[in-house]
Amino acid sequence: MIDVPHLRDICVGTSSKIVMLVVDGLGGLPHPKTGRSELETACLPNIDATAGESALGLTIPVMPGVTPGSGPGHLALFGYDPLRYVIGRGALEAMGVNGIDFQEGDIVARGNFCTVDDHGLLLDRRAGRIPSALSEPLCGELDSIQVDSLDIRVYPVKDYRFVLRMRGNGLSENLTEMDPQRTGVALQNVKALTLSARATADAANEFVRQARLTLIQEERANMVMLRGFSGMPHLPSMAHAYQLNPAAIAAYPMYRGLATILGMHVLATGETFADEVETLEKHWDDHDFFFIHYKPADTAGEDGNFDEKVRVLEKLDTFIPRIMDLKPDVFLIVGDHSTPSVMANHSWHPVPFLLKSPWTRAQGPPSFNERSCALGVMGTIRAVELMPLALAHAGKISKFGA
Amino acid sequence: MIDVPHLRDICVGTSSKIVMLVVDGLGGLPHPKTGRSELETACLPNIDATAGESALGLTIPVMPGVTPGSGPGHLALFGYDPLRYVIGRGALEAMGVNGIDFQEGDIVARGNFCTVDDHGLLLDRRAGRIPSALSEPLCGELDSIQVDSLDIRVYPVKDYRFVLRMRGNGLSENLTEMDPQRTGVALQNVKALTLSARATADAANEFVRQARLTLIQEERANMVMLRGFSGMPHLPSMAHAYQLNPAAIAAYPMYRGLATILGMHVLATGETFADEVETLEKHWDDHDFFFIHYKPADTAGEDGNFDEKVRVLEKLDTFIPRIMDLKPDVFLIVGDHSTPSVMANHSWHPVPFLLKSPWTRAQGPPSFNERSCALGVMGTIRAVELMPLALAHAGKISKFGA
To answer: Is B401 a domain residue?
Structure first.
């Protein structure tokens, strides 16, 4: 298996700097009318020029045919085999939000406010995407729910999202989720997957019962769904695995959570990518690896909005010169998975990437898209192979064997 | 490892339909005179047109440089790692022939009638390919052979082929084969590979001794060879692994046997590909996955008959519109291995494939052959990766992780 344990002994700390720009949902599919994908449609002068000086390829996020969630997709980019390291959504969310008190032994879950009808059938999985201004007071009400002797807290995340934290003795994360993944049907009860998880399942269901009574008069957010129950994850840190001093720059909480779990320094930043680039510039001297995250491509793809995905890729392109001006030793543009607008969803399709360094076999036209990358000199590789390649091109892996 | 166990939890049953057309021995090599392979020589208007709307690639059947038999070649196409799941040739044959009584604890072997000289040296491994009309009465004679207290049966398969079934206590499949794979040398005795297989080896050799006495007056079929000793195989079914309701359409017994082992519904069909396509049409509403098998390309290749392989590929091409008219959600043309006419044998060369679905990054010229597929957008992949890709393109794999 290609994985962090194999690299631990041969990685060396150096002053060279790696920037990994993760474009969430980067890959796409051709528009039925034009035959061109989002990347092929967008006008990307800076990215294309960089591609002309870079080695291109495609990454398979997890394994062929498998569509990853954001967690597995990012884990692979940082060199952690997502089939081996599994992190619950609850922990990802909890660790990404400032001020959440999440400790060893706690169980956290990602919560959605949602809308049900009088018969309890699901009408809207996101309660009409109610804004934080509406959801935060509701979180305050849910926060006062008491179940047995547990210490229960409800923290707002953003819009319709919250985190439930349960603290007590003998809690277990081995629970099923409530989300039926479609509307028109009833929510599922939380069920224990092991005998020892029964008490935790009962507590979660009792919380939901009380939450429904609390919210019953609400127009949209009249119910909650819980998923991704998880305890504190334990993964080898990137510092330990790679001899790095890594930093993460991400506006969205979940990606900060993932970075925290991998031991990255999560830098304070703003809500926009302009803020993120400013943060990168400001902390340039402090770290040797920067993960910088661009979310809008995934959001537009998930909304099925081809033109918007093209637009946000073009917007991203305008920031590339500022990153290049920092002269990173290795620069990568990668994606955690594809989100083709025509599918309005994450997908399994291999994801374009470029790797810029003086030590590549760069070739081909200055053009960054699914088809140019399919013919790229780096070939089609597993995403988990990217990190060793980035480290190698930065001179951070010593010789294996005599 | 890419393998069925990882997919089990994320596959979902849907109404979408997959057709996998397996062209046995599909891949070839250039003709020394023209520099063009069988596929490049053949006139394939329908297949080439389909290729123009499909994603192309090559499959490595087992691992680089390894030439597979039909069993491993097909297992990989259905997503079962052939290095992990080993099925004896005897079991493949036995399960493909109607009316063979093969149960748990039995040992079966594939038998060949063959020709030896007075010194027992092998003259013809297939007894001049004697027809069933001659071999069936001989099988009847062999069927009356008695060895110890074993229940021994001999079943005709086709032409020079038969199945030997041994039933009794404590039998073992851990036996060597008799076939020296070349003429002019003596047949090999059956030898035990483990201590506990000694009695079974003795019984097999005693059967062969009596068979030789029974056949000694025959002109061509004056001896038998046994190989592929095997007990009942146990593999996870495709229904269990993929949430599929799969059907197999194959004129040749061995492929029906393999399909049975994987839990496919083996549909009754005739001797020709026209019969097979008619069977596909007739049962279209009953299943969500169809394996349909085309044998003549392999036969022509094994005979070293380049022109005949070209001809049977052109014949296959005429049936493509009928399959397309059924509008499968995912259509694949694949091969279990290459059988280059110039080698007159199976080979290790990667095998062309096409995958047609609305969700591919289809590209390139309408041309289906070894070289166009080597440049295809799907790249060169392991055959075992095809099935997850087929399932993904049919919307039958749900998201992995949050």
So the answer is: no
Question: CB A375 to CB B375 under 8 A?
Answer: yes
Q: What is the tally of structural domains in chain A?
A: 2
**A374 and A244 in a common domain:** yes
Cα–Cα distance for residue pair B241/B263, rounded to 1 Å: 10
Same domain, yes or no: B182 and B251 = no
DSSP secondary structure string, B127-185? GGG--HHHHHHHHHHHTT---TT-EEEEEEEETTEEEEEEESTT----B-----SSSSS
Contact residues, chain B, for A69 at CB < 8 Å: 399-402
Torsion of CA A229, A143, A169, A90, to 10 degrees: 20
B59 contacts B381 by C-beta, under 8 angstroms: yes
What value of ipTM does the predicted structure carry? 0.84
Give the C-alpha separation, A363 to B320, whole Å: 39
Residue-by-residue DSSP string for B339-397: --TTTTS-B-S-EEEEEE-TTS---S-S--SHHHHHTSTTEEEEGGGHHHHHHHHTT-B
Q: Which residue bears the tokens 């086709």? A: B158
Query: What pTM value is reported for the model?
Result: 0.87
CATH of the domain at B369: 3.40.720.10
Note down the domain range covering B300. 4-87+234-393
Q: What is the pLDDT along chain B (402 residues), one digit of tens a residue?
A: 345 556 888 899 999 999 999 999 999 999 999 999 999 999 999 999 999 999 999 999 999 999 999 899 999 999 999 999 988 889 988 988 888 999 999 999 999 999 999 999 999 999 999 999 999 999 999 999 999 889 999 999 989 999 999 999 999 999 999 999 899 999 999 999 999 999 999 999 999 999 999 999 999 999 999 999 999 998 999 999 999 999 999 998 889 999 999 999 999 999 999 999 999 999 999 999 999 999 999 999 999 999 999 999 999 999 999 999 999 999 999 999 999 999 999 999 999 999 999 999 987 789 999 999 999 999 999 999 999 999 999 999 998 887
Residues of A with CB under 8 A from a CB of B: 29-30, 37, 58, 62-73, 82-83, 86-89, 92, 110, 227-228, 340, 342-343, 346-349, 370-371, 374-375, 379-380
Shortest CA distance from B398: residue in chain A: A67
Q: Is residue B400 part of a domain?
A: no
Instruction: Name residue A114's amino acid.
Output: C
Angle at which helices A70-77 and A253-261 pack, to 10 degrees? 50
Say how far apart CA A170 and CA B232 lie, in whole Å: 46
Same domain, A346 and A250: yes
Token pair recorded at residue A292? 């910088």
**Strand-pair partners of A154:** A164
Within-domain flag for A44: yes
Determine which helix (DSSP H) or strand (DSSP E) holds A132, and give its type and residue range: helix A132-142
